[in-house]
Amino acid sequence: MGGTVSLQTLIHSVAAVLLITGCAATNTPVAWGQAQEAAQEQIARKLKSKVAPTYPELARRMNIAGVVRVQITVDKSGVIKNTKLVGGHPILAGAAMEAVKKWRYESGSQETIGVVEFRFDPVQ
Questions:
Q1: In terms of Cα–Cα distance, which of 15, 101, 4 is closest to 62?
Q2: What element of type H or E holds 39?
């Protein structure tokens, strides 16, 4: 009957409980995201609107900080067509990916791909 529980399983369980019970902070800090220099070279279009990710309550409670990298594909109209997690803490990744999907670029002649980096810090 006894056994061990991995840290990842524990984190997922706590996250599920918080989501189900509706626990959320009223003054949730946000993270900031910035296109890396390499991505800016690939995405030569101007960023028209940018949404900052909301710092996840569970990450704040656990004092998790870190960088999340998301590869984005921007279609000709400037809408984010596709996102792919390149790296970062799983608890922070969802917030970064949801926020970047709302970004809009100027229209361009072709689809472009780049990497966006978000830095999460519970202190800021």
A1: 15
A2: helix 37-42
